[in-house]
Automatic annotation (TrEMBL), chains A, B:
<dbReference type="InterPro" id="IPR006091">
    <property type="entry name" value="Acyl-CoA_Oxase/DH_mid-dom"/>
</dbReference>
<dbReference type="InterPro" id="IPR036250">
    <property type="entry name" value="AcylCo_DH-like_C"/>
</dbReference>
<dbReference type="GO" id="GO:0016627">
    <property type="term" value="F:oxidoreductase activity, acting on the CH-CH group of donors"/>
</dbReference>
<comment type="similarity">
    <text>Belongs to the acyl-CoA dehydrogenase family.</text>
</comment>
<keyword id="KW-0560">Oxidoreductase</keyword>
<dbReference type="InterPro" id="IPR009100">
    <property type="entry name" value="AcylCoA_DH/oxidase_NM_dom_sf"/>
</dbReference>
<keyword id="KW-0274">FAD</keyword>
<dbReference type="InterPro" id="IPR052166">
    <property type="entry name" value="Diverse_Acyl-CoA_DH"/>
</dbReference>
<dbReference type="Pfam" id="PF00441">
    <property type="entry name" value="Acyl-CoA_dh_1"/>
</dbReference>
<protein>
    <submittedName>
        <fullName>Acyl-CoA dehydrogenase</fullName>
    </submittedName>
</protein>
<keyword id="KW-0285">Flavoprotein</keyword>
<dbReference type="GO" id="GO:0050660">
    <property type="term" value="F:flavin adenine dinucleotide binding"/>
</dbReference>
<dbReference type="InterPro" id="IPR046373">
    <property type="entry name" value="Acyl-CoA_Oxase/DH_mid-dom_sf"/>
</dbReference>
<dbReference type="Pfam" id="PF02770">
    <property type="entry name" value="Acyl-CoA_dh_M"/>
</dbReference>
<dbReference type="Pfam" id="PF12806">
    <property type="entry name" value="Acyl-CoA_dh_C"/>
</dbReference>
<feature type="domain" description="Acetyl-CoA dehydrogenase-like C-terminal">
    <location>
        <begin position="478"/>
        <end position="593"/>
    </location>
</feature>
<dbReference type="InterPro" id="IPR009075">
    <property type="entry name" value="AcylCo_DH/oxidase_C"/>
</dbReference>
């Protein structure tokens, strides 16, 4: 069986480029070493191949169903896999030792998780959401909330969700109508309907911890009135076990094109199906302060956005590896110009167009993986930097990069999956092979955790303008440093450095020009195009970084990196040119289009 | 229910642009008029909505299965729909009256078929293949073969297939191993295995007429030794009904990501399961002359390639229309800069990024439909031109455009389907809505009837160089004529004309430069990039043609056409620039990549 990721590539990115071993000099990671990191990666690869990859197709073919009694039925392999994952302590990997964690760097924890995401996207989503939920509570919850909810989640006895969207309000959180009314005992009763809740119900764990956005009486209009609540499926019992059933009810499961193994649910809160404490209404517990719910949720959301990027990367990566394997063993046709039609067919990797499809995939998935790990490294910097200024810088840079880390892999690692199908020809279109599932699974990623369009608005409308453009400037200084190092190397690196420098300077100029008139409607008319151009530029930066890291090293692996960098700079980065021309022109086509003309 | 295509757009393309009514002055179409064309289109729309669209989702959810006795089970709605289609005489639409046809122009017949393709891609494939099969036999078959096979196919009593690929030879027909051995009675016995045969078995009709490529003893190596045979599932009986069972056996059904309603089969010919005439071996009848099979098959293949383009267009089109409907009724969010967060949400079509996604879809599907119908008009010209030179010109132009008419919709109308999902947000990812199925169905089209890579090799390696570049020159003269007309209009049209002219001249120069050294390996290294740049240029030409056709006309419909043309020229055509730069640079990245470096 093909490994779902390349350990060699991870080693390169983690050790030869990002130098995660240097993190062990920080107090938080002092107990760690390259050996412990390797052990976690080895364990993850092993568990992912043994327990996750093995039921990926089965979970797709046998999606969860809702039983007449309202519970969820799914194939048993999911629970077996997740129990093994939890037993290995991986849910708590990056958490404090004080709550039972390993205090792994986020960079290593993300790399470890990527094995599971590549092996089985839908089963990996349960711990993925649980970790993000627990992270939020560890940051903003009370000691009691941490004891009651975070610990059982980190042990894998309970899982977590995030409940934001409602049927009438997907991207528009200002319009949520779920209400939370305070009770005399300090708790709240929550009433409303939440849509698209992944992992929203199942029998995998004893309990499910929902983090729910709701409005309290007297809150302001729009997003300002939103607060955040813990609403467990079962109220915590006296002994720390799941107790009385809360008034949270599974209304239905969504049936999706892909990602079928993850239950995706419509949940009713407080519809009276259950009567905790003798009355209807879902019992909820406020997290932090009232009306600050959205800011807390964005802590989880930003983490989830990077995580969705990783999910897209992992799916792109495994598709790349399987199509590479296929191209190596499948024989068909002869080299162009072969004189003898009776000569034996060659492996299809010998055909230039097949190599093009493989190089494109390689440049997408390895470029995106570099960005995902780079962003994770920024999280570690934020958490453990020696001085506050360095930590703040990491946070600022992460803020700017998050919409790219989410959207770019969602677009281009999906494209990689399409190419993986294409390399397989007709076989790739059948369910006998794996790649069509990756393509279906990956199509979710431009939608959830903020659609592609939302990421564009976030980047151009907020991230590059905030703090007077400080984030944009910071990213510019990082890119400039890379450009300077590359120029000093000469050869291809210098040419790429020049190209990147030129494109980046255009982005800076265009950003200023778009906002010069102070007209947000005009500035944001092509924000998705801006997002895509910005994204390709960031990935070009990641490729220049990787190219620099191969300097002076020889062997197939490094030659492959160099060729992928060359592919990205010759075939991909130039695509940014027309996008920047469009933005620079202040194009108003989308604004001038009257809906009645369609 | 939304119409699956726009009749208004078809009327514009057929009557206001391509002037198909002018064809009625030709002898072959003298019995026709705008009224008869309208009647066929109305009937097709009606049948497509009533019998095809209604089981599209059901056919996807309940794909055909193979019973223990080796026969195929499928939902009954497929047969009901196809019986209605056949009863309306539509299989024979474009055929000679002498064989029971209506002698419709191909342009009208293709437009009529597009309704069925948009309503239900997989059910439409059965008559689609039957028509292509019958067309081949009507051209190259003997009178007896036409009576025995073409007539029952046109009546819908028998269906047809094309059997080219084998498990070890998909794109590489030189490597087929199916053998045909001549018998004393003039028939052949065929032995071999054919893969990916759409409609290869079913119980929809009394008989199935397979057109099979096979090699005869003594034939040359490679494709030169290939001959074409009729191999019916049941040998024709004395009374014209299906007679004795031939030795053709369904080995298995392929299970696909989409297009599930069309059986796609592995067929064994002559494996001894049946013993027609008392001995094993599938009885086949030679079509035309020995060793010319591939040239005959390309008659069918070229028609099928245009038809696959239409299938992709139709799927793109219906997805566009459904996402347009959704964007009009789904409310969410507020316009940028809206001050009052309590103001009611607006239909999402009010958001610029949603309009971008709709404009992109519109420019793709209407641009592609224009090309598909333009190519169909060339077929009519080939068939009925007043002088041979005009007919030959039409054939030459069609030869050059066929790889574009197949590949461009397969790529960009699939992208349209992705955008249709995106407009729907999370709902679009569920099977409760239609668009995810279109996306899955459409993903087949870059694969079958010659993959994307094969189309690129065909275009750059053969079509633009054949006859000393006569096809390329002819296309250039057509584009130049459009450019000249557009320039005379002034305004936007002049700017678009200049842009198109510039790009086209670059393509001509680059084509010459690529072949200047006579090194096919180097010339074809980026043939897929060439295909894509060429395709976008051709569609830009189609948009300029449409823009000219709106001249002097007012109203929403024409304003929409003008905006879609503007979208294509501002957002799409510029993408060609970097592709041409890459080609002009003689980039060798894909050639220099060593397989061991991946």
């Amino acid at each position: 069986m093909t490994d779902v990721l390349s350990r060699r590539d991870l080693d390169f990115l983690l050790y030869e480029w990002l130098d995660v071993v240097a993190l062990t000099s920080r107090k938080r990671f002092a107990e760690h070493s390259k050996d412990t990191f390797d052990a976690v990666l080895d364990l993850s690869a092993d568990l992912a191949h043994k327990h996750f990859a093995t039921h990926n197709k089965k979970a797709d073919a046998h999606e969860p169903t809702m039983r007449p009694d309202g519970t969820v039925e799914m194939i048993p392999e999911v629970k077996t896999a997740l129990d093994a994952y939890a037993a290995a302590g991986l849910i708590a990997g990056a958490f404090d030792e004080s709550v039972g964690g390993m205090q792994l760097p986020t960079t290593v924890a993300r790399a470890a998780m990527a094995w599971f995401q590549a092996a089985n996207a839908s089963t990996s989503s349960y711990p993925f959401l649980t970790i993000a939920n627990a992270n939020l509570l560890a940051e903003y919850g009370t000691e009691q909330q941490i004891d009651e909810y975070v610990r059982p989640m980190l042990e894998g006895r309970w899982f977590g969700t995030m409940c934001l969207s409602e049927p009438q309000a997907g991207s528009s959180l200002a319009d949520i109508t779920t209400r939370a009314v305070p009770q005399d005992d300090g708790s709240y009763r929550v009433t409303g309907t939440k849509m698209w809740i992944s992992g929203g119900d199942h029998e995998l764990t004893e309990n499910i911890v929902h983090l729910v956005l709701a409005k309290t009486p007297g809150g302001g209009p729009g997003v300002k009135g939103i607060s955040l609540f813990i609403v467990p499926k079962y109220l915590p019992g006296a002994d720390g076990a799941a107790g009385e059933r809360n008034d949270v009810t599974l209304v239905g499961l969504n049936h999706k094109m892909g990602n079928r193994g993850t239950t995706n649910t419509l949940l009713a809160f407080g519809d009276g199906t259950h009567t905790p404490g003798g009355k209807s209404g879902a019992v909820g517990f406020l997290v932090g302060e009232e009306h600050r719910g959205l800011s807390y949720m964005f802590h989880m959301m930003n983490e989830a956005r990077i995580g969705v990027g990783f999910l897209a990367i992992a799916l792109g990566y495994v598709g790349y590896r399987k199509s590479l394997d296929y191209a190596t063993v499948r024989t068909q046709g002869r080299p162009l110009g072969a004189k003898d039609p009776a000569s034996p067919p060659v492996p299809i990797i010998e055909h230039a167009d097949v190599r093009r499809m493989l190089l494109a995939q390689k440049s997408y998935v390895e470029g995106a993986l570099a960005l995902g790990l780079y962003c994770s490294r920024l999280v570690d910097e934020h958490d453990t930097a020696d001085d506050a200024a360095t930590g703040d810088q990491a946070t600022l840079l992460l803020d700017v990069l998050t919409p790219i880390a989410k959207s770019w892999p969602s677009q281009w690692c999906l494209e990689a999956n399409s190419l993986a199908i294409q390399v397989h020809g007709g076989y790739g279109y059948t369910r006998d092979y794996d790649v069509e599932q990756y393509y279906r699974d990956n199509r979710l990623n431009p939608i959830h955790e903020g659609t592609h369009g939302i990421q564009g608005l976030d980047l151009l409308g907020r991230k590059v303008t905030m703090h007077d453009g400080a984030g944009l400037s910071l990213l510019g200084s990082k890119i400039a440093a890379t450009v300077a190092r590359a120029r000093s190397l000469g050869g291809d690196a210098t040419g790429y450095a020049d190209a990147l420098d030129t494109v980046w300077n255009r982005i800076v100029d265009i950003t200023a020009a778009l906002w010069a008139a102070g007209d947000a409607v005009a500035a944001l008319a092509n924000s998705s195009v801006y997002l895509e151009a910005f994204g390709h530029t960031v990935i070009a930066w990641m490729w220049l970084e990787q190219l620099i890291a191969t300097e002076g090293k020889s062997g197939d692996f490094y030659d492959g990196k160099r060729m992928a960098a060359r592919y990205f700079y010759t075939h991909e980065l130039p695509k940014v040119g027309p996008q920047l021309d469009l933005l620079a022109s202040g194009d108003r086509t989308t604004l001038d289009m009257n809906p009645s003309w369609f």
